[in-house]
């Protein structure tokens, strides 16, 4: 890719699992049109649901993975001359979505020479997105991927058993920790055991909703909550909206874009 040009692509992929890579001269914008995405940037793992945007700086090592059977993404690669110093995870609104779709549907390879007006508009809009403060309020923050091998085992156990009625005391005993020591290990990663367990559960619930499994009560039980009220309360705390509102908001025309 020529370093000063803008490239767009809409791609639909089954079982996405892309190893670590970089984009040398271009920042990358990912808009999720269908499905969800896990993005690992350096030592942090981020979660990107439908209608959300990830901005990955040029030369930033990252990998992409999805647990959904099919994902559809709008990708825009834009010049690294535009300042972008860190990964950004942004929400969106109809104004942003419509303009990104407009940019992607005109020319897949935009140059200053052959598409001066479109190029200027695309560049200016992409520059504006990362400064829009109202797009930055996203409760599901990234999670540190720990280098502590003993804690890695605990994390893996939670990832595989989140649907069970597990507790800090149970997991500590299972892996030979005292409750105090395991609590301290999580604290060193700036999270708590309960936060990580609920984080995993809510992400899995979003993935299930995205795969059209929309019975809220069944999804809540499937990811480990024993009451609908507990699931709904936790879901809203992590996402800012109730499961019902989340499902309704994501039934948009995006999937047919």
TrEMBL record:
Q: Where is the HTH araC/xylS-type domain?
A: 152-249
Query: Which Gene3D superfamilies is this protein grouped with?
Result: Homeodomain-like, Jelly Rolls
Q: SUPFAM superfamilies, per this entry?
A: Homeodomain-like, RmlC-like cupins
Keywords from the named record: DNA-binding, Transcription, Transcription regulation
**Top-rank taxon:** Bacteria
List, alphabetically, the InterPro entries matched. AraC-bd, Homeodomain-like_sf, HTH_AraC, RmlC-like_jellyroll, RmlC_Cupin_sf
What is this protein's record name? Helix-turn-helix domain-containing protein
Biological source species: Zunongwangia endophytica
